Amino acid sequence: MKITKICCIGAGYVGGPTMAVIAKKNPNIQVTIVDINQERIDAWNTEDLSKLPIYEPGLAEIVGETRNKNLFFSTDINKAIDESEMIFISVNTPTKTYGKGKGMAADLKYVELCARNIADVAKTDKIVVEKSTLPVRTAEAIKSILHNTGNNVKFSILSNPEFLAEGTAIKDLLAPDRVLIGGESKDAIEALANIYGSWVPQEQILRTNVWSSELSKLTANAFLAQRISSINAISELCEHTEANVNEVARAIGMDSRIGPKFLNASIGFGGSCFQKDILNLVYIARSYGLNEVADYWEQVIVLNDHQKRRFSDKLISTLYNTVSGKKIALLGWAFKKDTNDTRESAAIYVTDHLLSEQANIAVYDPKVPSSKVYDDLNYLQTRTEEENNSLVETFDNPYDAINDAHAIAIMTEWDEFKTYDWTKIFDIMKKPAFIFDGRNILNKEEMSQIGFEYSSIGK
Length: 459
Ligand code: UDX
Ligand code: UDX
Known about the structure:
The chain has helices at 15-25, 38-44, 59-66, 77-83, 109-121, 138-147, 169-174, 186-197, 210-241, 245-253, 274-287, 291-318, 346-356, 370-380, 385-391, 398-402, 422-428, 444-450, and strands at 5-9, 30-34, 71-74, 86-89, 126-130, 155-159, 179-183, 205-208, 327-331, 360-364, 392-395, 407-410, 434-437, 453-456. By secondary structure, it is of the alpha/beta class. The relative contact order is 0.09.
């Protein structure tokens, strides 16, 4: 099966970088990324590559190389579906906010809309690829929708979950640990394997059945998140016993069965995937009556919420049990460094808690625009937009954010934070000057020598 034209529905954090790399590595394939959001498509098409809607190291260069050669961004979804032999679905699958499964199950509304759209428009055979992370057995639903159109078009459905992490998306896409393709049709699987084969060695391309592929994605994210909750649980114990979580992480990480990666204690994991996917896994397990399995994985989320909460509780108790009217400077709003994505960022929940205690919050993040900070807080509906506007201020310069603050809370591990003039920062703060390092990126001895009251996670 020769593929000459591909389209991807959903120009987001997954669809954008993934298709850009596919286009770069397959110059003979025309790749079109479509989205219902005109503003987002316009941003992908802007002349100025520093204004792309998504910030990822290395992305702008690849878009610059391929855009309008074999990579196109458009809102004409029907045309792209009609012309393509292979269609990726990469729309968002948020946790349901209504009805059955509210707060737990994935909302498959957008995926179903895409399937119906493809069914309506397709006149020739298509390979439909699930790129979005979906509950196990979703392919069955997509198949049923596609096959009941009665227009004699043959659809093959593949599951091809994305394992890229934000902030390192391009690196992860260029050198993936593995590519996973689940499906029934051997031809369809090989057609997709050929596209990845342009740059990924065949032995790293795993072929499985559809359900294994869907479940592997949920399981990978659950295992990764579990590691963070595990080390974060130990971090709390460290704080009570004078053990040092970094030393513990190093010691256990040298056991080759455990491994050194993903053992950084933090204010808690964020991002669009970990919480959503675990909730989804818990929901699926419960729906099969597997309550012990569900409870086991749910605890990863319980611990993560606890970690975020205890960070802000500690900040408040250290500041003499009140932050009312005090300026607290937050360094970082993104859920991790090297991305402008803020979904489920711990900063949002820490801020919400501090605002409920009437703190004044000053935010500086090198990549997150001011509007996103307010949108994230307003979305919680804890207080009115006017109240958020009056209690929170954003800055494009860290020193202005910190000026006259009682405390600094480090939310994101941006590299630039390590290079600041911390003596100057000490001078412009109220005394005692507190730092709460939610990412363990600063050196305790250096900070104490300057005069800071410094505390970090798990030490
Ligand atoms: C999302 C999910 O977060 C992830 O779990 C899943 O694996 C893939 O989809 P992401 O790319 O980060 O990942 O989402 P987002 O940045 O929100 O992009 C989704 C895009 O789909 C948005 O631009 C949205 O406008 C678009 N969309 C959504 C459509 O084009 N059509 C729809 O019907 C719904
Ligand atoms: C994750 C998975 O890593 C990726 O494979 C999947 O495709 C999508 O979900 P992502 O959420 O983009 O990727 O970033 P990741 O690097 O996994 O970080 C998630 C969160 O965990 C961040 O808030 C990060 O700061 C936090 N984290 C990560 C820790 O607190 N400690 C660690 O040791 C690692």
